[in-house]
Design brief:
This protein is mostly helical. It has one domain. Helix content is 74%, strand content 2%. The chain has a two-stranded antiparallel ribbon. Helix 3 runs parallel beside helix 9 and helix 3 crosses helix 11. The longest helix has 34 residues. The radius of gyration is 21 Å and the shape is globular.
Length: 334
């Protein structure tokens, strides 16, 4: 499997280098059209990679094998490619849907810190790069723990179910609104932050009173990394519940994260029009948590998880769209 890991990491490195070094070399405000095009590109890449996953596990390339829930290789046979493909798509869509909640908080952080639109893509680029390293370690560490200590399935399952139930409560949204500002004030007590000036614009670090200091943009990046860590505590156990294979877990998660930046710019102006997505996420997390907790007694096929995720998101988006349309018609009537 080592060549697969090296090849995938090289692919990610090339895509990130092209993104920042070629297509977004000069800082500029990302338009809705540009963001939509790049969102389609990243989603197409993520979904297309599922075909490669099917080939790898169907033919057992580089020793790849499908695992059972306890991390043991399944006996050789047909259909391994389809099992792997279903697990990859389920993990990818699960992480993609959970990232929408992250976008709500990122929008709040940018607003609270007054980050100019021209600098937001750069902050998100480095935020995603840090998230790749951090989540890679957490995903692989989580897999090792689950294989080493099977009882953690019940702990993670209960945690996800409780998190899903909490999403139905308004207190959860209020707590998230305080994340950026509250953490920023705490960080300023411990970190040296230079006041804003024309010389600090677009920089993460600067010199202040003869010493190296963070800028507001640098502090924003730290807060965004922190919020990703907080959300990873929800998303990583959920992804581990649907795919025990390290390669599938890692690649699906990374492809979902890579498209997070452009998805932010697509949803930036319409983010509060999709409030029902929160309830879809609540149902998804509660279901995955219950599935994880009861995995010893009840076997739920991965296609059921995939169908539930797609259905919940589709219904939530549809209801949000209809509600906004009705409100627009009511305003037009008045």
């Amino acid at each position: 499997m080592l060549p697969l890991w090296i090849g995938f990491l090289a692919l990610v490195g090339v895509m990130l280098a092209l993104d920042l070094g070629v297509f977004h070399k000069d800082g500029h405000e990302v338009s809705a059209r540009e963001a939509l095009v790049w969102t389609v590109v990243w989603i197409a890449l993520g979904l297309s990679f599922s075909g490669f996953v099917w080939l790898v596990y169907e033919h057992g390339w580089f020793g790849a094998s499908v695992l059972d829930e306890h991390g043991r290789p399944l006996p050789p046979g047909d259909g391994h490619g389809m099992i792997a493909l279903t697990r990859y798509l389920t993990a990818y869509l699960l992480e993609k849907s959970l990232s929408v909640d992250n976008i709500f908080v990122i929008a709040l952080v940018f607003g609270q810190f007054g980050v100019a639109p021209v600098h937001r893509h750069r902050v998100l680029f480095w935020g995603v790069l840090g998230a790749i390293v951090m989540r890679g370690a957490m995903l692989l560490g989580g897999l090792w723990l689950l294989h080493k200590f099977a009882w953690l399935f019940y702990v993670f399952g209960a945690y996800l179910a409780v998190t899903g139930i909490r999403l139905f409560l308004p207190e959860k949204a209020e707590a998230e609104e305080d994340t950026g500002e509250g953490l920023a004030q705490k960080l300023k007590r411990w970190l040296r932050v230079a006041p804003d000036s024309p010389s600090t614009e677009g920089k993460f670090f600067t010199r202040h009173e003869g010493r190296r200091a963070l800028t507001t943009l640098g502090l924003t990046l730290i807060v965004i990394e922190w919020t990703d860590l907080v959300f990873a505590l929800d998303s990583i156990p959920a992804v581990l519940a649907v795919a025990p294979e390290p390669f599938i877990v890692f690649t699906s998660n990374i492809f979902a994260i890579l498209g997070l930046r452009t998805l932010y710019f697509v949803l930036e102006n319409a983010i509060h029009k999709f409030g029902e997505i929160r309830y879809a996420l609540a149902i998804i997390l509660t279901f995955i948590g219950a599935k994880m907790f009861a995995h010893e007694w009840v076997h739920v096929p991965n296609w059921v998880s995939l169908t539930l995720i797609v259905s919940c998101l589709g219904v939530a988006i549809g209801i949000s769209w209809l509600r906004q349309r009705v409100r627009s018609q009511e305003r037009a009537g008045h």
